[in-house]
Amino acid sequence: xxxxxxxxxxxxxxTGLGKIKTGEGIIGLSRAxxxxxxxxxxxxxxxxxxxxxxxxxxxxxxDFIPKKVPSTLTESLSYAGSLQKAKLxxxxxxxxxxxxxxxPFVLIGK
Length: 110
Prior knowledge:
- The protein is α+β, with helices and mostly antiparallel strands.
- It has four helices and five strands, in the order βββαβαααβ.
- Helix 2 (50-64) packs across helix 3 (79-93).
């Protein structure tokens, strides 16, 4: 499969987990997506709440979707910055400020 995707987001439970294989490292869906051409992947490391995940993903995408798409390889969208802003928004909002709601999500990439 050739994805050639700038970003893949897997917002379900434990999407960043895999099996440890001696001599290979962690084998999982994230690794397969990287091999398929995904440049950045957002995954979760444990079970997540549907309601808080929905809010986090809305805030996450809202931060970078309106921005113009990079015209050259030297320009890039900051997915890490967008994820950080979304997490900080959840913390300041109060309802989902506990780390359980926002901390399972990590970015593999830039």
